């Protein structure tokens, strides 16, 4: 392991690789990270942090003069109960700990044969539990050495024992880095770690490493599992606030759905197609938040993510994100307000929606059902890039459509609808501004906290995007709420809403199309005359003939 002054810095290097593969990859520049964060809206990049860490014949990595395996990392709160008693389930309440279960080390046959049968201790493997703030206490940094394991020179000074990892104990914090030792005996190829539990007495971000210093133990493997628990359950500390947040958001969607349902029932005769789309998004959001709450609740109770609930939650998230973007897009196009249908672009809208759902579902599955740390930066970019490009397509198409819709309404002098769309445009503009500001904060947060020392605040990053999506939906619900006067935003032929789009483009360019305009005005005058005749004489047949002639 390379470093800039000692073992503590080398451990920092490994922390950084285990937490932030994206930042450790030098091929990414700031612009790339910014675009990815912005376009994907940082959708709650909640990685898998199973509180039950399983190891299956995992190998150790060589760094400096040591070999290590990263056994896990989580934010843990201090125990609220001073003593630990694991004989009853009720005793777990209020306890925070790391428990080692069925940990087995297996060395190679060649390594075992080189040992003496009469020797009791022929190999040492250490489990090191360290907080991020104590990272510089691991290794020989304070001894001006690059070594991680104790050498004879260090042992002569009385600083450590040969064959062990160098650990400097903090006199002000007796619960600093903890060392648990397991020895191979004689020529045994296998040894098991004693079942034991380490109580957590201080709140912090904890890392677990299994390490050995003997080169003859090279190719040793580890199997078994460790169980990490917070005082209120198995949910990692970084994710704990999100369970409460998703519960509150479920209630928020429930209240919004109740409001929308009452308006829907009250003005059911004046419902337009757009209202059904809004109803679908509210229903999807309600199910999404409820599923995530139950997923986190189950995770907190068992220590493992429930696959079925997680699959449903991930799928509802992908569907809701897709339908929400389609809703904003078709509203921007003036669907149900300026045009009765999407016409020839319907297939393109459907294609974009299906493509986004597939890409989003793949990314969500990897993030929530697979350990993202197992993927290199390039593999992760391969999954993020399609979502980013499709999000860019949605953004460009949405604002382009909004511009055309506002132009149409301004030319037609449909003041009520124009005011409605101006409010909607202003809301989207504020949303974009908030998104850009928040992305700036995200970049600062990630750059200034590469080791997750601020893990207790990390939950607000994904929570913001969920809250922002809810606010946008709330604005649409308020602007397009069912009412007794639906004509203020509903499509109407009498107002000339079937205005030819090419005419709008020419008019917007300052080109006079007097011939076409005069024809349209003439048609309107003729319609007005026919309507007057119908009112006075009650004739129906003449109306039909006049319409046919038009």
From TrEMBL:
Q: How does it sit in the membrane?
A: Multi-pass membrane protein
GO terms for cellular component: Golgi apparatus; membrane
Q: Which UniProt keywords apply?
A: Membrane, Signal, Transmembrane, Transmembrane helix
Localization annotation: Membrane
Record has Transmembrane helix as a keyword? yes
Query: Which ranges does the record mark as transmembrane?
Result: 239-262, 274-294, 306-328, 340-359, 379-399, 420-439, 459-481
- The domain of life for this entry's organism is Eukaryota
InterPro entries documented for this protein: GOST_TM, GPR107/GPR108-like
List, for all copies, the residue spans of the domain called GOST seven transmembrane.
241-486
User: Which Pfam families does the record associate with it?
Assistant: GOST_TM
Q: Which PANTHER family match?
A: EXPRESSED PROTEIN-RELATED (PTHR21229:SF55), LUNG SEVEN TRANSMEMBRANE RECEPTOR (PTHR21229)
Name of the protein in question: GOST seven transmembrane domain-containing protein
Native organism: Lupinus angustifolius
């Amino acid at each position: 392991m390379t470093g800039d002054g000692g073992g503590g810095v080398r451990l920092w290097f490994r922390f950084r690789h285990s937490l932030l593969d994206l930042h450790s990859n030098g091929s990414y520049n700031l612009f790339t990270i910014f675009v990815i964060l912005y376009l994907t809206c940082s959708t709650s990049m909640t990685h898998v942090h199973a509180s039950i860490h399983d190891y299956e014949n995992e190998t150790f990595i060589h760094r400096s003069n040591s070999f290590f395996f990263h056994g896990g990392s989580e934010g843990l709160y201090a125990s609220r109960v001073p003593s630990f008693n694991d004989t009853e389930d009720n005793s777990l309440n209020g306890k925070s700990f790391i428990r080692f279960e069925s940990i087995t080390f297996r060395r190679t046959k060649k390594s075992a044969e080189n040992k003496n049968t009469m020797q009791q201790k022929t190999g040492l493997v250490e489990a090191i539990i360290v907080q991020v703030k104590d990272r510089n206490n691991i290794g020989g940094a304070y001894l001006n050495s690059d070594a991680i394991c104790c050498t004879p020179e260090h042992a002569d000074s009385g600083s450590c024992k040969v064959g062990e990892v160098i650990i400097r104990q903090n006199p002000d914090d007796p619960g600093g880095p903890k060392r648990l030792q397991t020895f191979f005996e004689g020529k045994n190829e296998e040894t098991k770690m004693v079942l034991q539990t380490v109580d957590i007495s201080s709140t912090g971000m904890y890392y677990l490493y299994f390490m050995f210093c003997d080169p003859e133990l090279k190719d040793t493997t580890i199997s078994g599992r460790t169980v990490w628990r917070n005082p209120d359950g198995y949910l990692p500390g970084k994710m704990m606030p999100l369970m409460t947040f998703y519960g509150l958001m479920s209630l928020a969607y429930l209240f919004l759905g109740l409001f929308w349902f009452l308006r829907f029932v009250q003005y059911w005769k004046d419902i337009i197609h757009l209202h059904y789309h809004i109803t679908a998004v509210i229903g999807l959001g309600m199910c999404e938040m409820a599923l995530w709450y139950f997923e986190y609740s189950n995770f907190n109770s068992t220590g493992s993510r429930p696959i079925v609930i997680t699959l449903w939650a991930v799928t509802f998230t992908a569907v809701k994100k897709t339908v929400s973007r389609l809703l904003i897009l078709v509203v921007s196009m003036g669907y149900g307000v300026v045009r009765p249908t999407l016409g020839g672009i319907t297939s393109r809208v459907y294609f974009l929606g299906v493509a986004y759902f597939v890409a989003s579902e793949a990314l969500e599955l990897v993030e929530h059902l697979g350990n993202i740390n197992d993927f290199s930066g390039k593999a992760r970019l391969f999954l993020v890039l399609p979502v980013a490009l499709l999000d860019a397509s949605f953004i460009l198409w949405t604002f382009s459509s909004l511009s055309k819709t506002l132009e149409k309404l301004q030319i037609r002098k449909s003041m009520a609808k124009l005011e409605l769309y101006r409010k909607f445009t202003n809301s989207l503009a504020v949303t974009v501004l908030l998104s850009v500001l928040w992305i700036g904060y995200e970049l600062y947060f990630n750059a200034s906290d590469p080791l997750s020392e601020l893990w207790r605040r990390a939950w607000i990053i994904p929570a913001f995007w969920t809250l922002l999506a809810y606010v946008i939906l709330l604005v649409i619900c308020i602007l397009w709420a069912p009412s007794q006067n639906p004509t203020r935003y509903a499509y109407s032929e009498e107002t000339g809403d079937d205005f030819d789009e090419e005419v709008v483009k020419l008019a917007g360019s300052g080109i006079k199309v007097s011939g076409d305009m005069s024809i349209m005005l003439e048609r309107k005058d003729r319609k007005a005359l026919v309507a007057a005749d119908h009112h006075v004489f009650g004739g129906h047949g003449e109306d039909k003939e006049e319409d046919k002639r038009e």
